[in-house]
Each structure stands twice: as C-alpha cells, then as structure tokens.
Amino acid sequence: MARRTWALRVSAAVMAAVVLAVLVVPLVVPLDEQAVDLGAKLLPPGPAHPFGTDEVGRDLLLRCVYGLRVSLLVGVVAALVATVVGTAAGALAGALGGRTDRLLMRLVDLFSSVPHLLLGIFVVALFRPGIWPVVASVAVTHWLSTARVVRAEVLSLRTRPYIDAAVSGGASRWRVTVRHLLPGVLPQAGLAAVLMVPHAIWHESALSFLGLGLPTHRASLGNMVDSARGSLLAGDWWPTLFPGLFIIVPTLALAGLAGAWRTRLNPRHRSELTL
User: Fold this and answer.
1) Full-model pTM
2) How far apart are the C-alpha atoms of 232 and 44, rounded to whole Å?
3) Three-class secondary structure of residue 193 per DSSP
4) Residue 212: which residues within 8 A CB-CB, separation 6 or more?
C-alpha cells in the first residue's frame, strides 16, 4: 500500500510540474521557431543551456517544453474526441443490441484489422501537415477499444434489477440508456480517456518522427528526435535524450495515475484495460 501511495504521489507531482511548465513557460519565454544561431549549434548541456542546443543552435529545454505542450494538446483533445465517439458507439451497441450491435461491432472489427499507425498515416496524408490532422488521425484510431469497453459495461448493467424495474415501469429504451446506462459507464469511459492520452502522445510523436505530423520547423518532440538522428551518430547524445525523456516521463506518470484510478474503480480485480 505504501509503495502504491508513493508511486501515485510521484506521478501526480510529475504531471503537476508538466502542466505548470506548459502553461507558464510560453507566457514567460516566447519561442521563435524560425530562429537559427549556427554559432551555438550542438552545445552540450551547461549553465546557459541546461539541455544543450540542437543542430541549428536552438535551446533544447525551451523547445522540449513547447513540444510537450503540442503533444499534450494533441493527446488530450484526441482522447476526448475518441472517448466521446467510442462511448456513443459502445452504448448504442450494448443498449440497442440486435442489428445495431452487430453492425457497430463489425465496424469496430474492420477498423481494428488495420494497424493503428498505418491508418493514422492514411488519415494524415489526406490533409496538409498540421496539428488538427494529427488530432483527427489519433481520434480515428483510438475510439475502438473504448467502444468495446463501454459495450461490455452496458451489457453488464442491463442485467441489473434496477434496469428491469425501469423497463417494467414503462421507461423507453432511450430513457433507460440516457438516465441509467450512460451514468454507469462514465467512470470506465473516463478511465479509458486518461489511458488514451499516453497512447495519443506516442502516436503524435511517431507521426512527426516519420515526417507526417507537424511541419518540421514546429517544436514537436517527434520532430526533434527525428532531426537529432544525425547528431546521435556523430556522438552528440543530448538532442535525442531530452526530447525522448519528455515523451517517456509524462506518459509513465499518466499511466501511474490511470492505474490508481483503475484500482479504485475495481479494487478486487485489478485487470488491465487494454487500449
């Protein structure tokens, strides 16, 4: 118990620091994304530049904070959109059953048969590089698991006595779904949204790393890792290490918070919610 409490506190502290940084730093220190200082390129970490500089002399600490802000924006917005779509689809499938259930679940199976990254690349390729095509790409590929989880929860709730009582009292199927079933699945849907944010961050970083996400001049963690490949081969490790840490550490912290939420929802059976 003490170990889990310690891990939860560390995760909460990390996420608080991350949110504070991405909100405050851009207000205090603006970033010129087109600025170049070749006289300061690839400086190692030091007092003037705690994370060093990149291949064109830009401060890595500042760019990592701005890149993390973009990743969190993509992750949170995409997770919310995917959760709303997945919750609606899963609730309709579980509540209506029959042909609607079969149709929606076959649609989920169809999307699931295509690898997430490949489907995301297809969606992004339809638009010009930018943040909103990336959000759409992540949302399209991540609502499927939420739909399955919500459908299973709705099917479980339909067997409860109070649902039978509502139906016997003359409540319509729509009223039962909105008043009784949806409130019952919201905790699971919220947990799915929190678990989805790290997936969305990695998805955005992967697309940017492949050159299909944000424009190359924009501060994005995936763009930074991609542009640092040549520097890493030359022995300059910091342009790759610090953007990578800015991807890994927040996602681990979010996973820790989601794990605590999952345990609180179902303390007896700590089964994994796979997304």
Assistant:
1) 0.80
2) 13
3) helix
4) 121, 124, 125, 129
Q: Quote the CA–CA distance of 180 and 232 in Å, as a whole number.
A: 56
Where in 127-265 does DSSP place strands (E)? none
According to DSSP, the residues that pair with 134 across neighbouring strands are none
CB distance 68 to 18 below 8 Å: yes
Backbone angles phi, psi at 71, to 5 degrees: -60, -40
Q: Please give the C-alpha separations between residue 161 and each of 126, 179, 190, in angstroms, as whole numbers.
A: 48, 15, 25
- For residue 272, give both structure tokens: 């994994």
- What count of Cα atoms within 13 Å lies in the side-chain half-sphere of residue 196? 31
Distance, C-alpha 132 to centroid of its chain = 14
In tens, the pLDDT along 146-204 reads 898 888 888 888 778 877 777 777 777 777 777 778 888 888 888 888 888 888 888 88
Termini Cα distance of the chain: 26
Instruction: State residue 53 phi and psi, 5-degree precision.
Output: -125, 165
